[in-house]
Amino acid sequence: MQLYVVRHGRTQWNADGRLQGASDIPLNADGRDQIARTAHALAPLLPADSTVVSSPLVRAADTAQAIGSAAGLDVAFDPRFQERAYGVWEGLTIAEREATYPDQMKVWRGGGEPQIDGYETHAQVTARVIAGIEEWAQRADSTLVVVAHGSAITQGLHALLDLRATPRTLEPLDNAQWSRLQRRNDGRWTLERHGIGPDTVGDRLNGLSSVTTAVNS
Amino acid sequence: MTTIVLWRHSRTGFNTEGRLQGSLDIPLGDEGRAQARIAGQRIVDAWGTDLHIVSSPLARARDSAAELANLAGVPVQVDEALTQRSYGVWEGLTHQEVASRWPEEYAAKQRGEDPQIDGWGTSADVAARVGQCLRQLAKVEGGVVVVSHGSAIQLGLSHVLHVSPTQSPLGHVPHAAWSVVTPRPDGPWKLDAYGCGAL
User: Looking at this predicted complex, what is its ipTM?
Assistant: First the structure.
């Protein structure tokens, strides 16, 4: 079973450095361009029996639809893949947060959890993302594609791979990038690809990745 | 801040035949050199030509490094610490041959454990050797490209990411693929990308 985890394309709030969280901000022109390129690069890698499931927030849903259309796959939705809720911080830039919540920003920058209204904790986000992945992985055939958000993905990947999250071991995905995990017979997940985008994926035509025995030598 | 690119050598004839190489010194052929040129160009596109290239002493790595060095117009340093793990008595055999003659030990290796065979380079030893080399390279300013081998890269990364070398979550690295890591002064390093340039 292989799992692709894709972060949505860019929105205006991403470009402006505003925290989105549960706010439903659409893709901007850049983002629409990005998802077209990502869909074009990712679709050929997806087997016909792949399952695509997305956060229902429009920035993820549109990203998932682009992938689904390119690959000829339907898209399902699951609210467990939504972004972490940031409550009163949503819509604010880093500078605005530093100005209005200096103590909580200090905690957050140190890897701690801020005490602010409406904030969803690491544990809460991790639990729902993992539950969603486990359930969809049971239902999927060879390949599951989950389209989600920066913080939700970071929490999910660190938990699935049993990696230390504070400080983060994995760099968060950029807009429209993906990672790929493999689940082995013993149920453990391995990281096969991380931080991949249209510019860093291989190309069958250029000889970088022809079929080979999957072994180290 | 230094970023370290870890680049696996390109495919050799032994790789294509499914033969374990380990410490055996098999050079690249035309196909492998072409693969290295394509991947090397993408590395230059991403990081420019101001690269500090350090290679394993084995020919398949040095030949790959030479293609990148040629594109960037810089020399190649060689460091023994980046050599591949030894596969002992399995070297030169195909995977099928090993699996049929040593089924339990082969299964152990596939699980990420160290098989009990003569001459096997253990995960802990290789992880420490490559990890120490990476920590030294963290002191170099600018873009560092390490040219090495699949196991050596996985194990070296496990060392700097603070994961167990025999329980590592890092998967197989395809030929000519690269990964990117950012050193941190304390605690585990940060893995920025893994398996770039592969499908």
Answer: 0.95
